[in-house]
Amino acid sequence: MMARLLKSREALLAGAIALLLALVSWRFPGFVAPENLARIFNDTAILIILALGQTAVILTRCIDLSMAANLALCGMVAAMLNAAAPGIPVGALLALAILTGAALGAINGALVWQLGIPPIVVTLGTLTIYRGLIFVLSGGEWVNAHQMSEPFKDFARAELLGLPVLSWIAFLVVAAMAVLMTRAPLGRAFYAVGGNPTAAIYAGIDVGRTRFAAFTLAGAIAGLSGYLWVSRYAVAYVDIAAGFELDIIAACVIGGISIAGGIGSVGGAVLGALFLGLIKNALPVVNVSPFWQLAISGTAIIIAVVANARAEGRARRIILRKAEVLA
Amino acid sequence: MLHAPSTSIRAKTPLLTLSGISKGFPGVRALAGVALEIFPGEVTALIGENGAGKSTLVKILTGIYQPDAGTIRLGGAEVSFRAAHDAAAAGITAIHQETVLFDELSVAENIFLGHAPRSRFGLIDWPAMRRNAAALLDRIGARIAPETRLRDLGLASRHLVAIARALSVEARIVIMDEPTASLSHKEIAELYELIERLKAEGKAILFISHKFEEIFRISDRYCVFRDGECVGGGMTAETDHNELVRLMVGRSVDQIFPKTAAEIGAPVLSVSGYSHPTEFEDIGFELRRGEILGFYGLIGAGRSEIMQALFGITRASSGTLRIDGKAARIRTPAEAIAQGIVYVPEERGQQGTIAGLPIFQNITLPSLAKTSRAGFIRLAEEFALAREYTARLNLRAAALDRDVGTLSGGNQQKVVIAKWLATRPKIIILDEPTKGVDIGSKAAIHAFMSELAARGLSIIMVSSEIPEILGMSDRVIVMREGRIVASLPREGLGAEMLVRAAAGIREAA
Question: ipTM score of the complex?
Fold first, then answer.
């Protein structure tokens, strides 16, 4: 099974990443030095974590546009609390950020589940609401580095066995999501609900509840990322991570998560995020304008979508033909 | 030619003549050499069991399918419809069971979509469109304002809009596919009146129906379909119920279906007073161990709806269930599966397999609790379970970790059956188990059903195919309009009894 998986889109993407690395290191050998790669990984860690939350949602044939706003709101809550009461331990703030994020995600999930509103509409609405709430909470004020306690700022940056804690958390989330997706009934339900919602109902899976779980999970991940973000950059304001929701979705799509649901893997999402992270870090090194960076990301998205659509089309054609006969 | 020219119609020439029309799909022969004549100013009724080929014929006449062989002559000239607009341009229009219209547009827009009157500047001439729409609606006696949004109309009014649309393109041939299936008595009476008007205008009407009374009430000619052929036809006035029933059924069935005798045990499922606000009422029956219980009825009789309620997909409003003698409640499919009930739905492509998942994960999806420990799936056990049931069904897939979408249709069905058997159910509900399946696979599925019953499983089989019902059932429940109208034992069961009960014909006329 592994062999076939590796021949698939993940392998293709890994190949593209390797090619990219080879091209850049040909002119700038220092780029592939282990320290630099570790730096790029750390730089991409938050995107990787967020892409995995989005993957759960997209697998169920939904989408969460509010993840970046959720992140910013949770980050602001954590930063303001820390500024107001520096005595609260970082662990408690981290837990609070995750819970707040999960609650915000649960609101998305509940609206999709109970009211049957299309996810893109629900999360477009909550995106705006969550951003608005940050303004209401902070009055538009920034929380700057000097207002944050040292442990608060040090958490993500502290080194453990040679790598920053932020990187370790990304590894942890990747491992947990991999287990969830391959070994837990809930992960299987994500695939089933997105792959064929009707068949999932007949298999005893509650489609609405599964989607609710996916949104809540994505929310918790956004909350975690919110704390990590303000901790790492040591600043919180209304517009942090503005527009980042599109980077998250781009990472998923490049990583082969089918926007139609039901297809994709944790490995794919991680590679998709790494690909974006590499481009972002590599282009300045080779003196390419940041405008090209956007164009290259966009091209990668389209190539990924075309490649995946072709692969899926082949597999699904039989069923379509059959359904037509029955009609 | 089918219609022997009788004295009364000799003077007439057919508007549409079909001869030798054949159409096949992979593994299925839908139409085999159909001949049919349709005359102006007349209603021709098309009758037949589900799957007899009526809908395929309609699709050929409206240009959606192209026939493999045969000719279509319209007013003497041979025509061929390569696409739907060819048929529309030739003046053939169909009003479907589920009328295809646009909810968010006005009635006038629905009528004239695609051929709206234009103003001098090439823009839509709204006043003219409303005027013309009002005139058309008036002509068919419909009291609907052209400005009304379609979604505010009931089903009957939608039909009228569809008919007005048909007239707006000056259709010469109007096909009505079970137009009365979901109409009230009053609405049906109005539809009959409208059909009389269309006849008077010289339109030819092809009327597809299951209901005997209405065939005798409004049709001038009839044609009975069976197995993709027109097996009999003529003037409606010269036939009777008995002849139509005989033509529809017309074959002996004992040899095809290998139902072996199974020992029938204690009741496994008892249902009583089971009702739903709109779909069925006061349903009561008992299913025994090792029994195959057939549910027969016309489409829309409420059979699948009962099964969906039993499986927890919809909820019944009242009634009691007993499983193995104990009172039971089923509110979700997960609860049904836990109680040993599984449901193999009719649309297997749509409701059965999940294309993104590999074969083995498709099979184990409803059984994951069984292969998990402490909330984690044990992959080895999961794989073993899938292998056990695919082996039992002789599913020779190269590898169980391949995407299920790469399998053939027949093998996908085996995956679906394996999925349900792996839950070790007590009761299996099969909804139209052999619909759209070729003859060879049909026999295999029937043999397998017999085997399951012999092993002590109880099976509810919803089927619209009379031979299948007669051949496979130990007992048959016949439904009509949401109610059980007959419960018949296997002994002495005949096709005509079933058709009469399902259509509500009381005595042999």
Answer: 0.78
